[in-house]
Amino acid sequence: MKLDPVVVDQLVSGSQSDIRQVINMISTWKLLSSSMNFDQGKELVQQNQKFTIQTPWTVMSNLFSPHMFGATSTSTLGSKADYYFHDHSLIPLFVQENYVKCNPAKARDSNNEKAEFKRMKYASKAADAISDGDLVDSMIHGSQQQWGLMPLHAMNSTVRPASFMYGGFKSFGRDTISFPMWLGQYSKTNKNIRALGEIQAKMRVKVSGDRDEIRQYYYPTLWPRMFNPLTESVPDIDSVINLLDNYMLSKDDFDVMSELGVGDLALEKTVKCIPTKNKTAFTRNYNNRDHPIAFSRGQVIKPSAAQIKAEVPDHEDVLDDEDDNVVDAKEEEDDENDDVTADKLVKQPKKPAASKRGKASASRGKGSK
């Protein structure tokens, strides 16, 4: 049986390089015919197509490979869109994270400046396609949930960006493809929103701003007044603690606010500039004081050091007359409850019957009389 090399390559790629499946397809076809052309091989591959779930890294390597959108590519538009459905929630994020790392085949030129200009042009087109994909995704996962738009989302978020930026990554290897950083940033954003909401709930006793106003207007004013006194050689700890108490904030809120800053108020430029001894002194002084609480959620609040040192009177030996009466009443109730004669479930013992000898002597005595 003669096979064209192109047909063999098609059988190998269609079976995911499974040699046993290739031999099985050829042996089955040999029973019907002794030759196979390109169209027949394509039809045979579709009939025996092997579906496997690929990892996102494998999908990215195949989708952005130099031959995927080339002139000699045999992949159809549907097969390219199938890469999206391996993991429709994760593949678009991988594309968004890694498309800028590609070296587009369309932008290659002997002139480096011209090649860089083309690369920026195709990267801009890929970014526009990803933006269109985000609009479609909002309609899919929004209130309407139009799941029929998933093929359109596959084209805009995966296929179109790859068609502009295909050509392989700049440095080849698995480590080149990065995991989407958006997932970590999204989780961090939700955590900061929850923390900012708790701070706003406590500060609303003193201020009238909502969560966004607290972050935009109050935070840039309050935070420098909280950490600047602690950076000095002689820290003004009392002013910081009084400021926290005035706005019903705690030491935990102070730590949370240190993570909300950006730019000049970022964590690296504020809290990390405070000497360790000042941090220790601030924590010690704060724990030794009593602080106002805006509201309580039923949490167990540990007493401060001042409350622990205070003397507690001993009332163990002090009893009132009312307590004596209560104790006597309880003892009487316990005695009544201990009486089992009134319990119907307890079988009472019967009185012992008189012996026969006793009855006989009694009858003799009556007869003698």
Describe the SSE topology.
Elements: E1 2-3, H1 5-14, H2 19-30, E2 35-36, H3 38-47, H4 56-63, H5 77-82, H6 91-98, H7 112-140, H8 150-165, H9 181-203, H10 211-227, H11 237-246, H12 251-258, H13 276-287, H14 305-309, H15 321-338, H16 356-368
Parallel strand pairs: 1-2
Account of the 3D structure:
By secondary structure, the protein is mostly helical. It has three domains: 2-47, no CATH class; 56-179, Zinc Finger, Delta Prime, domain 3 (Up-down Bundle), CATH 1.20.272.10; 186-294, no CATH class. The protein is built from 16 helices and two strands. It has helices spanning 5-14, 19-30, 38-47, 56-63, 77-82, 91-98, 112-140, 150-165, 181-203, 211-227, 237-246, 251-258, 276-287, 305-309, 321-338, 356-368; strands at residues 2-3, 35-36. It has a two-stranded parallel sheet with strand order 1-2.
Q: What's the architecture of the largest domain in CATH terms?
A: Up-down Bundle
Mean pLDDT: 80
* Number of DSSP-assigned strands: 2
Task: Give the low-confidence spans.
Answer: none
For this entry, give a set of tags.
369 residues, mainly alpha, Zinc Finger, Delta Prime, domain 3, 3 domains, two-stranded parallel ribbon, flat, DNA_pol3_clamp-load_cplx_C, DNA binding, DNA_replication_fac_RFC1_C, DNA replication factor RFC1 C-terminal domain-containing protein, DNA replication
